[in-house]
Amino acid sequence: MNFAKRLIVWYLENKRDLPWRATKDPYKVWLSEIILQQTRVEQGKPYYFKFLQAFPNVFSLANASEEEVLKLWQGLGYYSRARNLLYTAQHVAFNLGGEFPNNHKNLVKLKGVGDYTASAIASICFDEAQAAVDGNVYRVLARLFGIETPTNSSAGIKQFRNLAQELISKDDPANFNQALIEFGSEQCKPRNPLCNTCPFSSECVAYNQNKIAQLPVKLKKLKVRKRHFNYLVFVSENGETIMEQRRGKGIWEGLYEFPLVETPAEASVENLVMEAGVQDYFSNSPKEFYLYNEIPIVHKLTHQHLYTKFWICSCETLPAQGVRFEEVNKYPVPVLIENFIDTFDL
């Protein structure tokens, strides 16, 4: 079968109208690809427009502060993408004269740009025949060719990449890559794929051998870690609170939050006040100390679930430097903190 030709015909008839498909500008394509890593299209689209409005070119983004970028990114998660975005913008603007590399070999050297993103940019912007392989592509190829190699194994990654590279249209790699990804998203869906209208159903191994639900194969995920977060929300008599910036290489690096005390299990007021981290702040006893949410808020990340309680600490003066509570919204914060701020009535 002429897979590439039939796939592109399907794409041209069925593709969604997405803003980044109307350009070959490497900056805009790169921006869209970074946003869409680990993010659904409908969630990412407003962020794409917000970033272009704030930073219409790589030079304006390169001159932004990290806090500006993190604040604009707020709610998208996986914040290392935002930091890498800024780092790469600065590298392209200040070291490469504002010109993105025009081939996969050099694109993949950019921070935050892996094989998939480099292939997408190289094919869309520079017509280089490099296959872009994401979860949608794994699913389509696994079902169509009956491949049972786990997609998240080193052997699987190599096998699927090589197969996609064999199939890619050398004449139209941009449309091929976008078509294969779109086909996985809209036709060969994870659940309830549209097999009855699929142009490849007669050749599809999964369809003809009733293996649709079994393919693709994926190795079991790592065990999810359970953590217990306790945020101390200080409120002084003059309406100030304490915000601290997260440091280190853990989650939410560079974002702001209320003072955090992590405990090995769910904390009660009696055992929380005995924690060293709390004692450091309670050198002067607060006027009032109470739990804001009786049931912990569960915030799910990829490999960890955060069981979170917010503790309100009313006091005359703060035990550390404070900020006006109405100014808190100006800080880049995790969505967990943002949701609390939106519901907390000072």
TrEMBL record:
Domain of life, source organism: Bacteria
Keywords (A to Z) from UniProt: 4Fe-4S, DNA damage, DNA repair, Glycosidase, Hydrolase, Iron, Iron-sulfur, Metal-binding
Cofactor(s) needed by this chain: [4Fe-4S] cluster
Enzyme Commission number, as recorded: 3.2.2.31
Domain HhH-GPD: residue ranges: 35-186
SMART domains associated with the record: ENDO3c, FES
Keyword Transcription: no
Cofactor binding: number and manner: Binds 1 [4Fe-4S] cluster.
Catalytic function, reaction form: Hydrolyzes free adenine bases from 7,8-dihydro-8-oxoguanine:adenine mismatched double-stranded DNA, leaving an apurinic site
InterPro entries assigned to the protein according to its UniProt record, in alphabetical order: A/G_AdeGlyc_MutY, DNA_glycosylase, Endonuclease3_FeS-loop_motif, Endouclease-III_FeS-bd_BS, HhH-GPD_domain, HhH_base_excis_C, HhH_motif, MIG/MutY
Entry similarity comment: Belongs to the Nth/MutY family.
Function field: Adenine glycosylase active on G-A mispairs. MutY also corrects error-prone DNA synthesis past GO lesions which are due to the oxidatively damaged form of guanine: 7,8-dihydro-8-oxoguanine (8-oxo-dGTP).
Record NCBIfam families: mutY
Protein name (Swiss-Prot/TrEMBL): Adenine DNA glycosylase
Gene designation: mutY
